[in-house]
Specification:
The chain is of the alpha/beta class and 364 residues long. It is built from 11 helices and 19 strands. The protein has a 7-stranded mixed beta sheet with strand order 11-10-7-12-17-14-18, with helices on both faces. A 3-stranded mixed beta sheet has the order 1-2-3. The chain has a 3-stranded mixed beta sheet with strand order 4-5-6.
Length: 364
């Protein structure tokens, strides 16, 4: 029988590749996994974003071989297996991908849960912060709010909205302030996308958490808060499951970034003894990605008025003794804060969102 093979060739790596290279391939493939094969195309193992995330938490270096974090006993299916059998494997073993192999264990295809099933509706609310001035983007935001700036064929905020919709979310709140009428006119009540959109109208700048005090009711389930100027392919369902499974009240999504120090860094012993010089070292950090999952009870920690950022809220959450967590993710992420970031987003958009020339033309 024929199996889905449309994009699996793009996520192949070899055992000599590093974890960092596997992450790049995973990012480009947008499937949340890579398949490790030898040069005869025999399957050696599978690496998911969860495998890499566990490696990060164990402080495994990204330069280590991909086999360091690889599952070398993956669940596989044969070419003769029915889709019903493969779907049952996915459900019983909580899998998102099942490689298809022949009798010699050579890789011939890949079935993905995303293709096999439509996402189930998610009742969790999504709050998108779209009230910022976008002043660092200069003349671009003088007449247009930053969330409506086009990246490729769509406004930034529409890309975010559709990313959530693709994963089953349908209840949205947009926090608006600067040129809010333009955003409200564009998105309306959400019926164009088959979802519900309400607005949190700021009369003053509220920060990245202050406008949550404007929610008309307290949600019954954990909910998302996300900055409205991010371009990302994060798996929201996986992040939400992580938040719930860890039984925490607040989760911050974090992304590893690397920064090269453009100098030779000098290490000293005591005050003057020179130990060594490291030329242009690369420092790695986990940074706040501007995506959060919150339980309803933390809303009581937000002041009723005034400027209040999400970092302020997390400090209060920790001080109140609530449990918190960080969700490291590996998918594409870009904070569109400056002109260079916006230009990079426009350049990345066709590749990251699989928009070939024909799709770009159709979407324009």
């Amino acid at each position: 029988m024929t199996h889905t093979i449309r994009s699996w060739r793009a996520i192949l790596v070899h055992p000599e590749h590093s974890i960092l290279e596997a992450v790049r391939v995973m990012d480009q493939g947008a499937l949340g996994a890579v398949l490790v094969v030898n040069h005869q195309q025999r399957l050696l193992g599978v690496v998911t974003d969860g495998d890499v995330r566990r490696g990060l938490l164990q402080r495994i270096r990204m330069e280590a071989p991909v086999t360091t974090v690889m599952c070398d006993t993956p669940t596989v299916a044969k070419m003769s297996d029915s889709k019903e059998h493969i779907f049952a494997l996915m459900r019983t073993r909580s899998l998102n991908h099942v490689p298809i192999v022949d009798d010699d264990y050579r890789l011939v295809g890949l079935e993905t849960l995303k293709v096999m099933v439509r996402p189930q509706p998610r009742d969790n609310w999504v709050v998108l912060m779209a009230g910022g001035l976008g002043s660092r983007l200069g003349p671009l935001t003088e007449r247009c709010p930053k969330p409506l700036l086009h990246v490729g064929s769509q406004p930034i905020l529409e890309i975010i909205l559709e990313s959530f919709i693709e994963q089953g979310f349908y209840q949205f709140f947009l926090s608006v302030n600067y040129k809010k009428e333009m955003i409200q006119d564009y998105f309306g009540d959400g019926s164009r996308w088959g979802v519900s959109i309400d607005y949190l109208e700021e009369n003053e700048r509220c920060g990245t958490a202050g406008s949550l005090a404007l929610l008309p009711d307290r949600p019954e389930l954990p909910f998302f808060v996300m900055n409205g100027d991010l371009l990302t392919r994060i798996n929201f369902i996986r992040a939400l499951d992580f938040h719930v499974e860890n039984e925490v009240q607040a989760t911050m999504c974090v992304r590893k970034v690397a920064q090269t120090v453009p100098y030779g860094v000098v290490e000293l012993e005591s005050s003057h003894r020179l130990l060594r010089i490291v030329e242009k070292p690369v420092e790695e950090y986990l940074v706040n990605a501007g995506i959060y999952m919150l339980n309803p009870e933390v809303l009581s920690l937000i002041p009723s008025s005034g400027y209040f950022d999400m970092t302020d809220l997390f400090r209060r959450v920790i001080e109140a003794g609530y449990a918190t967590s960080a969700f490291p993710f590996l998918e594409y992420w870009l904070d569109i804060g400056r002109m260079g970031d916006f230009q990079q987003a426009c350049q990345d958009y066709p590749r990251v969102f699989n928009m070939g020339p024909s799709r770009l033309a159709a979407a324009s």
